[in-house]
Amino acid sequence: MNVFTFIAVYAGLAVLLLAALSPVIVELDTRFPVARRKRAAAASPAAPRPAKALKGTRITAHA
Fold first, then answer.
1. Which backbone phi and psi does 49 adopt, to 5 degrees?
2. CB contact at 8 A, 51 and 61
3. Phi and psi (nearest 5°) for 44?
4. In what ranges is there compositional bias, type Low complexity (predicted)?
5. Residue 10 has pLDDT above 90, yes or no
């Protein structure tokens, strides 16, 4: 066995663990929705960022 075998084994175990936990994750998502976070984000909008000039040009971009 080499290093790649161990990496493959651990990756496979991680996939199996996530597959086993997916019903629990879905249940928690339906039980505790994130609507509160969405409402809080909508109540306090982020401040707009200033325009930055692109290098070598006079064009400004909102990036």
1. -85, 150
2. yes
3. -125, 90
4. 41-53
5. yes
Cβ distance 53 to 63 under 8 Å?
Answer: no
The pairing of strands 52-53 and 60-61 is antiparallel
Compute CA 37 distance to the chain's CA centroid, rounded to the nearest angstrom: 15
Check: CB of residue 52 under 8 Å from CB of residue 60: yes
What was the pLDDT predicted at 45?
65
Instruction: Identify which of 45, 41, 53 has the alpha carbon closest to the alpha carbon of residue 63.
Output: 53
Q: Which residues pair with 3 in a beta bridge?
A: none
How many residues can be counted in the chain?
63
Confidence (pLDDT) at 1: 73
Q: Among 43, 24, 40, which Cα is nearest to 32's?
A: 24
- Please give the Cα distance from 18 to 26 (Å, whole number): 12
